[in-house]
Amino acid sequence: MKKKNFPNFGQILRFLLACGVSFLCGSFAMLGMTLGNTRASWEFWYKTWAKLSLKVLRIKVILENKENLKGPAIFIMNHQSIVDIFSLASIAPLKSTFIAKKEAERVPIIGRVMKNAGCIFVDR
Question: For residues 31 and 8, what is the distance between their CA atoms, to the nearest angstrom?
């Protein structure tokens, strides 16, 4: 019989903290987009959100050949895990636009921020 690998308390706490980071960064992004420059707020908060989330989850992104990371370009994630989202957002060049499934638009706060930032939602 295979032993089930249940998350420990630390893993659950880090996950909850990452959810809190998403909520706070999304809220601040909405506020910034309402009161100021939409694009500048988006660029600051999506980078901040990604980097804080990776830090809380204790994930280090190592980027090789950084000189090749420039636009225009299409960056594609294979979604082997949810960490793909944080990883790409943390290294994506400024003035990046993201494509997401249309269901992501319904996620409270984050969906609104993505819509206001010009993300493209597609019906798969």
Answer: 35
**C-alpha span between 42 and 40 (Å, rounded):** 5
Whole-model pTM: value is 0.75
Give per-residue pLDDT as tens, 31-44. 888 888 888 888 88
> Among residues 87, 91, 90, which one has the least CA distance to residue 77?
87
Q: Rounded to an integer, what distance in angstroms lies between the CA atom of residue 32 and that of residue 44? A: 10
With vertex at residue 117, the alpha carbon angle to CA 105 and CA 26, rounded to the nearest 5 degrees, is 70
Q: What angle do CA 115, 106, 122 make, to 5 degrees?
A: 60
